[in-house]
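step=encode ok
step=design start
structure_in=
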């Protein structure tokens, strides 16, 4: 009830959003203050607000936050505070989480293969938008909503994802050949119909969205069904070392121009950013438990927040907090990382460039992990961290930390 009242009265204060979290004025004092056995998740609230404003001002339709990227309540509330009102949810638990926390939020259940319980639960909670990619799923939605006609149905289409650093095309999506029949059935069931797609995560080329929209347009020729909504999905990138995408505005401009060129100017438009809204808002500090030559054994790994460093083998901006307060060496070495679990897959090849003298007890701050970091943790072997702390905006200038400039060459012994 307190939340409802706050929502009604517009009291979306920072302290409401960050309720229950510890505050620190710099990353180094957070690491020392927490004195934590596990990794420490760091939250930079101003970065959430910055990214939200970029989408709300730059994208011409509604921006649905893809909750899977980071479902932490503080992230959801910061986005709400910044003006995000639409959320892409993928599971019963995500529906429950967001509808409990933000009762005024508009939820879109965009997973194309849902359980019957999840559909029933979502409809009862007021969710009126559902994705599908097969006749079986349409039947399920019809049965579990009691034949509701007050819904929007989104056909998930398969489009290529060759321009994305993390492809998402291999699992879901109807083919363009299957689409007309599925759209026709949805038209008879729903108040509004749309299509959605995902060009792949961390999509490095804005024209990928134009190509996908071109395929939708070609499919609709002679299909005999008109659309109400186009949802261009997620995939909006952020810069990581070695991956410098064009500015976000170039993505918005390309999408808007393609919508106009393909005759979709009058349709309701949606997008579903996850990574781009929250990646820069988080970091994870991990401790070095042992050094063996150029191998560092850490207290977090691929079963934890460092999945993206190991499985797709990405690089991240990093900084070092030395455990003994020494000034780290200028010379750098490319290290391989190992996570803490017993599984030999828990390995990150890198090479990750850090000061040559990294040693046990030092903390490595892995930045841009606000997306697909905290959320990827398992509890395998008992290694995970629930510690999330807030770093005040002025502290993001990494005081007391030694940021690691990127160099190309490995300093060999
Ligand atoms: C249906 C759907 N929408 C949105 C997203 C968010 O994608 P991104 O984080 O690349 O923006 C995903 C990611 O898997 C997704 O599956």
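sequence_out=
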């Amino acid at each position: 009830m307190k939340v409802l009242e706050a929502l009604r009265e517009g009291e979306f204060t920072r302290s409401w959003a960050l309720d229950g979290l510890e505050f620190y004025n710099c990353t180094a004092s957070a690491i020392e203050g927490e004195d934590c056995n596990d990794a420490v998740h760091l939250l930079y609230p101003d970065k959430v607000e910055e990214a939200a404003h970029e989408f709300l001002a730059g994208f011409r339709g509604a921006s649905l936050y893809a909750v899977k990227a980071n479902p932490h309540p503080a992230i959801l509330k910061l986005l709400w505070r910044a003006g995000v009102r639409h959320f892409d949810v993928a599971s019963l638990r995500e529906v429950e989480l967001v509808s409990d926390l933000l009762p005024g939020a508009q939820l879109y259940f965009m997973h194309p293969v849902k359980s019957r319980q999840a559909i029933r639960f979502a409809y009862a909670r007021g969710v009126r938008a559902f994705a599908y990619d097969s006749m079986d799923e349409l039947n399920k939605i019809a049965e579990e909503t009691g034949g509701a006609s007050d819904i929007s149905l989104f056909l998930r289409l398969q489009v290529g994802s060759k321009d994305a650093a993390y492809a998402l095309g291999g699992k879901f999506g109807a083919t363009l050949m299957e689409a007309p029949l599925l759209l026709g059935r949805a038209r008879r069931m729903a108040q509004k119909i749309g299509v959605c797609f995902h060009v792949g995560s961390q999509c490095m080329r804005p024209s990928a969205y134009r190509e996908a929209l071109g395929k939708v347009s070609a499919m609709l020729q002679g299909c005999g069904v008109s659309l109400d909504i186009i949802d261009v999905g997620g995939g909006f990138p952020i810069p990581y070392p070695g991956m410098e995408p064009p500015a976000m505005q170039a993505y918005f401009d390309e999408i808007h121009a393609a919508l106009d060129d393909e005759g979709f100017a009058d349709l309701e438009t949606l997008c579903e950013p996850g990574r781009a809204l929250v990646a820069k808002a988080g970091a994870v500090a991990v401790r070095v438990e042992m050094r063996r030559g150029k191998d560092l054994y850490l207290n977090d790994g691929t079963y934890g927040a460092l999945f993206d460093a190991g499985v797709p083998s990405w690089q991240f901006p990093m900084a070092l907090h030395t455990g003994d307060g020494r000034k780290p060496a200028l010379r750098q070495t490319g290290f391989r990382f190992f996570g803490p679990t017993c599984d030999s897959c828990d390995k990150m090849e890198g090479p990750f460039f850090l000061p040559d003298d990294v040693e046990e007890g030092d903390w490595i701050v892995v930045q841009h992990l606000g997306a697909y970091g905290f959320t990827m943790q398992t509890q395998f072997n008992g290694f995970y961290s629930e510690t999330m702390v807030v770093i005040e905006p002025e502290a993001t200038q990494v005081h007391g930390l030694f940021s690691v400039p990127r160099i190309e060459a490995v300093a060999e012994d």
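step=design ok
step=annotate ok -> The chain is about 30% helix and 25% strand.
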